Amino acid sequence: MNRTIRSMLGVAAATAVLAVGVPALTTTASAATTGATTASAFDVDFWGSYYSKYRNGSRAKASGRVWDDGDSEVHVQGRVYDSNSPSWLCGYVQVKFENTDGDESYEWARQCGSSGYRSFHYSEEDVDSVQVRVCYWDKHQAKRVYCGRWNYIYEADSDDE
Questions:
Q1: Which CATH number belongs to the domain containing residue 133 in this structure?
Q2: Which among 105, 17, 109 has a CA at the least distance from the CA of 67?
Q3: Which N-terminal residues, if any, form the signal peptide (predicted)?
Q4: Which one of 9, 13, 21, 118 has the lowest number of neighbouring Cβ atoms within 10 Å?
């Protein structure tokens, strides 16, 4: 039942995205052109909002969606926000892809300044799990600080479903 609800939410989200003309979920020229066909090809899950640790009453935030395109590629799309932080801190999100052999690869996005957000979209093939965490980026020290915990946003389906 949980998978059915997720699928229905994915269909609704994909249809809404297509209705406003944003091709966020179509990644190839051969993607279907109708909302129902496109939505059934993807199992879209929304993740977040996830936060960094507090720094003087402010926190960085990230949220988005994750889906498997059916061709062994997992996509992670989202936005990272920086709000009310000192000028030397930037909102920062890390995305960790892991395969069945335990090999990891990382992607990141950064938003400096309180106005708006930074969009990101990453994809990897043959992914077993994906995790995200939100931090601040310290421009003076050129490193991550005040990181929140790692959150699983995708795990490959097992054969028992």
A1: 2.60.40.150
A2: 17
A3: 1-31
A4: 21
